[in-house]
Design goal:
The protein has 77 residues and is α+β, with helices and mostly antiparallel strands. It has three helices and four strands; from the N terminus they run E-E-E-H-E-H-H.
């Protein structure tokens, strides 16, 4: 099943489309690594002062980023 993750950030909304997910009783679950990429990209948008609605596919994000791209800086600080 595919879903769209909609995340608010300081300045706008991030829509990440084509996110693989599975339905569990009362919620939709996505893979931990995919969630890290979505949240990390949201942080990048905030850090760079991006304003407005941003829509991107998870596939395009995965072409440029992996979960460790966002985890490693947090570990090092």
């Amino acid at each position: 099943m595919m879903t769209t993750e909609v995340v608010s950030f300081d300045g706008g909304i991030l829509n990440v489309i084509d996110v693989p997910s599975r339905k569990c009783e009362c919620e939709t679950l996505i893979a931990l690594g995919d969630g890290v990429i979505v949240d990390g990209y949201k942080g990048m948008l905030e850090k760079n002062g991006i304003i407005g609605a941003v829509t991107v596919s998870l596939g395009k994000l995965k072409e440029r980023f992996g979960p460790m791209d966002f985890i490693r800086p947090q570990i090092q600080s």
